[in-house]
UniProtKB/TrEMBL annotation:
<dbReference type="InterPro" id="IPR016161">
    <property type="entry name" value="Ald_DH/histidinol_DH"/>
</dbReference>
<dbReference type="InterPro" id="IPR016160">
    <property type="entry name" value="Ald_DH_CS_CYS"/>
</dbReference>
<protein>
    <recommendedName>
        <fullName>NADP-dependent glyceraldehyde-3-phosphate dehydrogenase</fullName>
        <ecNumber>1.2.1.9</ecNumber>
    </recommendedName>
</protein>
<dbReference type="InterPro" id="IPR016163">
    <property type="entry name" value="Ald_DH_C"/>
</dbReference>
<keyword id="KW-0521">NADP</keyword>
<dbReference type="GO" id="GO:0005737">
    <property type="term" value="C:cytoplasm"/>
</dbReference>
<comment type="similarity">
    <text>Belongs to the aldehyde dehydrogenase family.</text>
</comment>
<feature type="active site">
    <location>
        <position position="264"/>
    </location>
</feature>
<keyword id="KW-0963">Cytoplasm</keyword>
<dbReference type="InterPro" id="IPR016162">
    <property type="entry name" value="Ald_DH_N"/>
</dbReference>
<dbReference type="GO" id="GO:0008886">
    <property type="term" value="F:glyceraldehyde-3-phosphate dehydrogenase (NADP+) (non-phosphorylating) activity"/>
</dbReference>
<dbReference type="InterPro" id="IPR051020">
    <property type="entry name" value="ALDH-related_metabolic_enz"/>
</dbReference>
<dbReference type="InterPro" id="IPR015590">
    <property type="entry name" value="Aldehyde_DH_dom"/>
</dbReference>
<keyword id="KW-0560">Oxidoreductase</keyword>
<dbReference type="Pfam" id="PF00171">
    <property type="entry name" value="Aldedh"/>
</dbReference>
<dbReference type="InterPro" id="IPR029510">
    <property type="entry name" value="Ald_DH_CS_GLU"/>
</dbReference>
<feature type="domain" description="Aldehyde dehydrogenase">
    <location>
        <begin position="24"/>
        <end position="483"/>
    </location>
</feature>
Length: 498
């Protein structure tokens, strides 16, 4: 159970503590932030409402701890990460329980997230040893006009203090995708988890605590974004920000100044279906991509652009699969579970009502109970409907019928988002040409969009983000190149005469 057993020390009464200096602490504010269970719509957990003074203390400690950690042998850093990964996977059940109750993630998917996170940490440790264990050696006479009088040695060194801000939908996995690269590269890490998902994140951090990382190296601070959000992201002690989320990321990027940024924001991932596509394959991936975790994924299929000649057949196949989706509480492993909050449900409903007023075809009746919205496929959507452009982050999927490939590419590229997209066709040449034309960070051919595997590059264009993620890219991003140049008194040539 959450907060019990090895996790007993992370809770005081009914309020979970925050983590600083290797200890679980109560905030001096004496206040807490409530976490609402999306299914029951009642308070499930409470976390500390930390103060700006406590943020200052965390940053001070993180800076000092990083100096010592940077001197820790690379193999030792990797060893501790492997240990944390094993502990995390060992305690997958209580962490998964938190995910079910905080963000209404289906039980089986919650367990998968925790196990996947352990695997990500282990892979990061191994990849970090490979990347950071190598340097570069350059000689000056490879550039015109130079003799061989300079030997250049380059290596990768840490940035300092990394601020990690994951989203509610993957509060464990997207936290460790930032924590692992930060730690293996010799940085310290300050985690600000989302409110919904904070308790799962606190349990995850305790696994790192149990692994024996140095005090102060990892901190986890909770609280209201309105009170500590800007204070954290604009703090002079932060040397890099890794953020996953929505519009907040745009605000952060404008305020961050010279701090390196790694940001994955929203998406309106388009699925283009051509006449020669395997429609059964396309339909299966559209339902999986559009409705898994109730569509609350940055890489969810969010608009289907299908050629008119096969649209009727595709829509019928998708409708048949949608009819088989189970709807209900996450504890029952239902396919469609409540969305994260009432405000999210209200936003989704607003998009649906706009489409209804503008005569979209409802392939199922619209049904909602509290935060639970039944899966809905909207056919004959037009560009003047909000759902054609806005990201619902819910189980509602629009279908736009197109008459040419160019029309589909135009709609995709007209979006302010550019995270991922997908193309269904049996013609690989055509698929590559469409992929090259789509203004998105990734294009999947004959499969739904997806962030993983976690070592693949993952990036967005336009309002979908800054920088690139994926384990290798994150490791490189959280370091800077250090160069040492040895100047020789006379030119030196290997095997040459003195």
């Amino acid at each position: 159970m959450a907060g019990n057993g090895v996790f007993a020390e992370i809770i005081d009464g009914d309020v979970f503590k925050y983590y600083c200096e290797g200890e679980w602490k109560k905030s001096a504010s004496g206040k807490s932030v409530a976490i609402i269970n999306p299914t029951t719509r009642k308070i499930q957990y409470k976390v500390q409402a930390c103060t700006q003074e406590e943020v200052n203390k965390v940053m001070e400690i993180a800076k000092a701890a990083q100096k010592s950690w940077a001197k820790t042998p690379l193999w030792k850093r990797a060893e501790l990460l492997h240990k944390a990964a094993a502990i995390l996977k060992e305690h997958k059940a209580p962490i998964a329980e938190c995910l079910v109750k905080e963000i209404a993630k289906p039980a089986k998917d919650a367990v998968t997230e925790v196990v996947r996170s352990g695997d990500l940490i282990s892979y990061t440790a191994e990849e970090g040893v490979r990347i950071l264990g190598e340097g570069k050696f350059l000689v000056s006479d490879s550039f015109p006009g130079n003799e061989r009088t300079k030997y250049c040695l380059t290596s990768k060194i840490p940035l300092g203090v990394i601020l990690a801000i994951p989203p509610f939908n993957y509060p464990v996995n997207l936290a460790v995708s930032k924590i692992g690269p930060a730690l293996i590269t010799g940085n310290s890490l300050v985690l600000k988890p989302p409110t919904q998902g904070a308790v799962a994140a606190l349990h995850m951090v305790h696994c790192f605590h149990l692994a024996g990382f140095p005090k102060g190296l990892i901190s986890c601070i909770t609280g209201k974004g309105s009170e500590i959000g800007d204070f954290l992201t604009m703090h002079p002690g932060v040397n890099c920000i890794s953020f996953t989320g929505g519009d907040t990321g745009v605000a952060i990027s404008k305020k961050a100044g010279m701090v390196p940024l790694q940001m994955e924001l929203g998406g309106k991932d388009a699925c283009i279906v051509l006449e020669d596509a395997d429609l059964d394959l396309a339909a299966g991936n559209i339902v999986k991509g559009g409705f898994s975790y109730s569509g609350q994924r940055c890489t969810a299929v969010k608009v289907v652009l299908v050629m008119e000649s096969v649209a009727d057949t595709l829509v019928e196949k998708v409708k048949a699969k949608v009819a088989k989706l189970t709807v209900g509480p996450p504890e029952d492993n239902c396919d469609i579970t409540p969305v994260v909050s009432e405000s999210s449900a209200n936003f989704i409903e607003g998009l649906v009502m706009d489409a209804k007023q503008k005569d979209a075809t409802f392939c199922q009746p619209y049904k909602r109970e509290g935060n639970l919205i039944w899966p809905l496929l909207l056919d004959n959507v037009r560009p003047d409907m909000r759902i054609a452009w806005e990201e619902p982050f819910g189980p509602v999927l629009p279908v736009i019928r197109i008459n040419s490939v160019e029309e589909g590419i135009h709609h995709c590229n007209a979006s302010n988002f550019g995270l991922q997209g997908c193309v269904f066709t049996k013609d690989i040449n055509k698929a590559i040409l469409i992929s090259d034309a789509m203004e998105t960070g990734t294009v999947q051919i004959n499969s739904a969009p997806a962030r993983g595997p976690d070592h693949f590059p993952f990036q967005g264009l336009k309002d979908s983000g800054i920088g690139s993620q994926g384990i290798t890219n994150s490791i490189n991003m959280m370091t800077k190149v250090k160069t040492t140049v040895i100047n020789l008194p006379t030119p030196s040539y290997t095997m040459g005469k003195l």
